[in-house]
Amino acid sequence: MNNTKETHFIVQSAAANMPSSCWGRYDHHAVLEVDAGLEHVAMISEHARGCHEVVYDSGPCFSGTTKKCASDIALAECREMSQELNDRKAAEKDRRAYLFGIRLYRTGNDPLLRLSMEREYWEARGDGFDHCHALEYALRYVK
Question: Which residues of 8-40 are buried (b: 16+ CB within 10 A; e: fewer)?
Fold first, then answer.
């Protein structure tokens, strides 16, 4: 997983390429880690723009007419996996913010230590620590 940008997990489906001897429709379903604003990418590949990782690929699954076909089962598994990974990522982000708050409370009023911790916090969030945050910090804490 790439930690430098904000990402989330999505489910992507595509038609599978099969030989002419295979009749019927076959699909691929995959769980992808993509940039935060994306809902889909051009292809199921790590080379697609905005895609960081292919977490799971079902491979070619027969797409039948019932809900018990291999394609629908694989799609349900992918949706469940995507939801679980997004929930786990959100919980980890909340845990990091909570631990950061405890560490910040324990620092007291040391401005240099607070500045380094705030920089660490903004970098962990992925927003970066720009000049606006530095000015806001200076106005708030340094006297």
Answer: bbbbbbeebeeeeeeeeebbbbbbbbbeeeeee
